Amino acid sequence: MTENINLTDALKKYFGFDTFKGNQEAIIRNLLAGNDTFVLMPTGGGKSLCYQLPSLIMDGTAIVISPLIALMKNQVDAMRNFSEEDGVAHFINSSLNKSAIDQVKSDILSGKTKLLYVAPESLTKEENVDFLRGVKISFYAVDEAHCISEWGHDFRPEYRRIRPIINEIGKAPVIALTATATPKVRMDIQKNLGMQDAQEFKSSFNRPNLYYEVRSKTNNIDRDIIKFIKANAGKSGIIYCLSRKKVEELAEVLQANGINARAYHAGMDSATRTANQDGFLKEDIDVIVATIAFGMGIDKPDVRFVIHYDIPKSLEGYYQETGRAGRDGGEGQCITFYSNKDLQKLEKFMQGKPVAEQEIGKQLLLETAAYAESSICRRKSLLHYFGEEFTEENCGNCDNCLNPKKQVEAQDSLCAVIEAIIAVKENFKADYIIDILLGKETSEVLAHKHEELEVFGSGMGEEERMWNAVIRQALIAGYLSKDVENYGLLKVTPEA
Hints:
Rossmann fold
């Protein structure tokens, strides 16, 4: 019955839109045909419609697995607004009491409920598995699918249990959706969900309307931010800080300077937090100062600036947070303050974690640092990180393109890097290659007897930062590649 359905009519009927965006229609057709579907769509591209519409058309109940309670509530409310039937969408999570859960179950059994949102923790509970076994399931949607991968910026171990649970409840097509996934994370998701044959729909990560700028962080940062906000008076903005303490301090400083700002973090009581979030959505508050707990599923189209007070832990996080600016296609300024001290702080945070996790965390940090220190087009670097090529020489909308830094001819330096990588048989990461070039007799270098190599110390005239930049540019230009399966070992490509 779903083959001949007119999707545009259904879209108009249920959501009031006249046309689909991007790949939405192709994705929905693939799912209606009963196929596993992998969707990579940047923030603001309309991901949730890809499972909401088919759930209304297909027989049975669709299960949406999502990690965020706040997001579930938002989406369930939105779905109920579109439908006369309140039972059309429900969620099951730890915030519901027993009688509420019984109501949800009775709506599902009576066939009213087309969409059921569950947190992965609730999905794995035995009584829920037993109940869902008796339900006709139209399909499973795994939202924020990057949570499966420990290389993603938001790894959640319970996501690894999704596939075995699906097998227990009963087979149905799976659609996995994420807004940010590097090629490595994409492989991880598909392997883990057992959907290697899934058709992949990938939208471009380029958001031409966003302006990217990295400023160095000085002691006057608060003053700089106040000046920036006053120059953009009345516009909506988000400022991200790493710690809750900093969030509260900065919100107070802004208020003291006559800026209509509020704080938001997971440690606040939920009434205040919700009031601040709603105030921001309703335009009663101009600026939200927040930890990254803020913004998941926040559908505010006219955020005009996103400021990072501290450098994010990964480029995925950075992309996702800056992506909350300018969703309506209008102006979106993304300003990040960067200092090397911040990186050391982030590395310190990782010290108690398992070694493998620290390794991955360090790799992600190095990518962020390289992005911040680089003099090439920010757009080019970001898109390269997500496995997409940006061919234009000048994007015209980032600090490095608008104010190019002095370029240096680095062919000899590149040759030195390539020679060093070949000399150590392509078995080492960037920081080790730089140690070799700088002639550092570290314990690892001595253990491999690499201080005896001809290239050892050949780059001593230059700073470490310069070598980092050469390696980064060489990766983007395609002279070097990184073996992501093995912690980022550097390899030489045929072009080199």
